[in-house]
Specification:
single chain, alpha+beta, globular
């Protein structure tokens, strides 16, 4: 997405990450008639934020990615994305997006609540909480069902997911480095899950 189409903010965008997000959405809509976009924010409960490190969060995300292969909740999840952030008020937290095959799922709410519970009860070891980030909460709705021919909705999704490519104040001020000075990885995007069954006709993005 052209950065001039994005809202003016106090931070910039990592163009490589932005391009990866846009390319992934386009690739998926070439293969699937519709996709379901679910956004969930993963947090740590306030009383534990000072005890939780970036390593804890990254390892929890890696466990989730490994477990997705065997957990029925993610059986039709075709890709996932995440952005690790830090703020003094929230501590370390993730903004995530899970994209499902729209032929198998219709409701972002049910899936989002299940993912929220999975973070709170399993991955974060009872110190976490999560928030289902519905597109209805924002002026531009960038979640929910997306049809391959709905150009406006596709643009809205790319607009919403651009948040995962942002560069924030703490990154610019070197907060995202470990004790050795090595950069901490903050953006994650999974490989696309191979499509099952016969492939339909090629999709044209309008």
């Amino acid at each position: 997405m052209d950065q001039t189409l994005l809202p003016e903010r106090l931070y910039g965008y990592n163009q490589n990450n932005l391009d990866m997000i846009d390319k992934r959405i386009d690739e998926l809509l070439q293969k699937y008639a519709k996709i379901l976009v679910v956004r969930v924010d993963f947090y740590i409960r306030e009383e534990y934020t000072l005890d939780i490190t970036d390593r804890f969060m990254i390892e929890a995300w890696q466990r989730l990615r490994n477990n997705m292969r065997f957990n029925q909740l993610f059986a039709h999840c075709i890709t996932s994305m995440a952005k690790l952030e830090y703020t003094p008020a929230r501590g370390w937290h993730f903004h995530t997006a899970f994209i499902f095959n729209g032929h198998h799922h219709q409701s972002e709410y049910g899936l989002g609540k299940a993912i929220q519970a999975y973070w709170e009860n399993t991955l974060a070891g009872m110190v976490g909480h999560a928030h289902l980030s519905s597109g209805q909460d924002y002026p531009i709705n960038g979640t929910g069902m997306v049809h391959y021919s709905d150009a406006k909705k596709i643009l809205n999704v790319k607009y919403a997911l651009a948040y995962l490519a942002k560069i924030d104040f703490y990154q610019l001020n070197k907060i995202f480095t470990d004790a050795t000075g090595k950069n901490i990885r903050t953006f994650f995007i999974s490989q696309e899950k191979p499509k099952q069954g016969l492939r339909g006709r090629p999709r044209t993005i309008l």
